[in-house]
Write a structure and sequence with these properties.
By secondary structure, this protein is an all-alpha fold. It is built from 2 helices and no strands. 75% of the residues lie in helices and 0% in strands.
């Protein structure tokens, strides 16, 4: 991607930060709704099963993947040195 001006870099950086923020917010929601709440409900009703742990593991894995995607997007932030360079 070639950036022609500081404005292009600023716009790209803001979009990347916005998307990374959404990824991290979704990861928190997925982790809470998919893992913490069902596990707590199952534990309080004394109905913890293997299926509960499999479901919790899946949602925690998904939350971790979303956090990793957010980190990748933050690494794509550019500086003024990237003007007119192919990155």
């Amino acid at each position: 991607m070639v950036f022609g001006s500081k404005r292009d870099i600023a716009v790209s950086n803001e979009v990347n930060k916005h998307h990374a923020g959404w990824c991290n917010q979704l990861a928190t929601a997925v982790g809470a709704a998919g893992a913490i709440v069902p596990l707590t409900a199952a534990a309080l009703s004394f109905q913890v099963t293997v299926t509960t742990f499999i479901g919790v593991a899946f949602w925690i894995f998904l939350a971790i993947m979303l956090h990793i995607l957010g980190a990748i997007l933050l690494r794509r932030i550019r500086t003024d040195d990237d003007i007119n360079s192919d990155v």
